[in-house]
Amino acid sequence: MLEVREAREDDLPAVAAIYAAAALTPATFDLEAKPLEWWHETMATSDARAGRLLLVAERDGVVAGYAKSGSFKDKPAYDTTVETSVYIHSDHRGQGVGDALYAELLARLDATSLRLAVAGVTRPNEASDRLHRRHGFTEVGTFHGVGVKLGRAWNVQWLERSLRGAPDLPREESDAG
After folding, report:
1. Backbone dihedral region for residue 2 (phi beyond 0: left; psi -120 to 50: alpha; all else: beta)
2. Going by DSSP bridges, is the β-strand pair 138-149/62-71 parallel, antiparallel, or unpaired?
3. Residue 168: which residues within 8 A CB-CB, separation 6 or more?
4. Angle, to 10 degrees, between the axis of helix 97-110 and the axis of helix 126-134?
5. Hey, which bits of 7-137 come out as E strands?
6. CB-CB contact of 11 with 57 (8 Å)
7. What is the CA radius of gyration of the chain?
8. Between 36-44 and 12-22, two packed helices, what is the crossing angle to 10 degrees?
C-alpha cells in the first residue's frame, strides 16, 4: 500500500539519497547531492499556505519518492507562484508513485490562494512529460542549452499549471514587457 504524507525527520536520509542519485543525472542541474542539513532546513521551513511543501510516498515502510514545492524566484511579486518537483527511487519508477505524489501535492496547492505551479523538465524525459501533462501542466517554452552537465548542454522545457484556489485578478494578456 502506498501512503503519501508530509515528510518526517526519519524520512530525510531516504529523501536525500533519492536526490543524490538524481544529482548524478541531468534530472537536476545540481552537480552534487544536497547535504542532509539542507533537507532538515527545507522541512523546518515548510509552510503549506506559502506553497513550501515536502511530501513523501511510502510503501511498506520504504520511502519510494518525494515531491517538493517552493519559491519560484526570490522576488516578492512571484510569491504566488511555486516551483514543483518529483523524484522517485529507481526501484519504484513506473508504479504510480509520481502520480500519487503529484496528486497530493497539487491538491494541497489548490487549497491555497497561490496562483501558479511551474516545473522545469530537462529534455528529453518522456516519463516526466507524461506525469506533468496528466496533472494539468501545459508547455510554456524551452530554454535551449541552459544547463551544462555531464559534458553537454541541456534544454529545459518549462510547464505551468494554474492553481484552483487563486483569486481572480485582472491580467495583461500582452507579450510586451
Report:
1. beta
2. unpaired
3. none
4. 40
5. 53-59, 62-71, 81-88, 116-122
6. no
7. 16
8. 120
> How far is the C-alpha of 134 from the C-alpha of 102, rounded, in Å?
10
Say which residue the cell 496533472 belongs to: 135
Residue 84's Cβ-side half-sphere holds a number of Cα atoms within 13 Å equal to: 33
Mean pLDDT of the chain: 94
Please indicate, yes or no, whether the overall pTM of this predicted structure exceeds 0.85. Answer: yes
Residue in the structure block whose three cell numbers are 522517485: 88
Provide the grid cell at 90.
529507481
Q: Which amino acid is at 27?
A: A
Per-residue pLDDT tens for 5-53?
A: 999 999 999 999 999 999 999 999 999 999 999 999 999 999 999 999 9
Question: Which grid cell is 66?
Answer: 518525494
Distance CA 77, CA 55 (A): 26
